[in-house]
Amino acid sequence: MPFGEFYEDYSAVWVNRFITAPLPYGVNALVPPTEIGIQLRGAVQWGEPGQNFDYTTWMGNGATFSNCPPGAQQSCILPGDELNSQTNLAYQSNGRGYGARFRFYPLPYSSELGYLELGASTYNSQYFNHFWMHAWGVDFVYFVKNLQARGEYLEMYRELPVGLGHDHEEGWWIEFGYFLNGISLPMASDEVNYMFQKLEPIVRFSGVNQPAVLFSQTPYASFGVPAYSFGFNGSPSLFAPYSREVAIGLDFWIAPSVVWQTELDFELPGKGGLYYAYPGVAPNKGVPVGPTPNDKAFLTQFAIGF
Q1: Domain count, the chain
Q2: Are 20 and 233 in contact (CB under 8 A)?
Q3: For the whole prediction, is pTM greater than 0.85?
């Protein structure tokens, strides 16, 4: 999906500086990760070399949500339901998804100010016959010498059946990294400096605000016992309605697309929001979330790009 900075340009394991995704694109993403459809792309140079404008427009098979399989009744739609992966063709909406992304590059290659990319995205989709979801976002990328910075803000609004209000979710992430290849340690040997200069320390802050999440889709779904899926590398607090995460990392670049990554995550969710259960499970009017775990996680990964 060419929405925003992360999915298309930054999610590959040897491109993403971190092992995990930022919260708006993590376990409870605000926008579908993939669609099956068609795209139209183009670009124009409006000034000096490097001063460009490009666009991407697309139409796809639309958003679906994991709580509403084919043939389900409207009552299955609840606030906080997770998006399906669009590669699952059994869960198809009866509408289509439409989107566009525009990027503007104000600095020429010759500029000493570095590289700057400014982007804006929009996505609109029908789901479950006639309900609509709308999303929009803005993002930036900035490189200057050894510094890299990226960030994004996005919102998603989803229509719900009468009596459930609406889903209005927002998310953001910003990260900074600095290559140490221009720095030498005093009184260190050439071998030590050679290894030191392959390092890139990084830091990222991300968050999501949403009114509710489905309790049945959290790691505590099995009667209060964590029920993680294989390969899950997050923590229970990622499923809180007001998730917050500070991630600190250190990457060792063996080659431009070969990297050994380490990451330390601090989950700092805020209070508020509701847990909903599946239809037919207790009075389904939402239960206050209350205190959430402030978890920590340490991850390491070796990635090779092709």
Answers
A1: 1
A2: yes
A3: yes
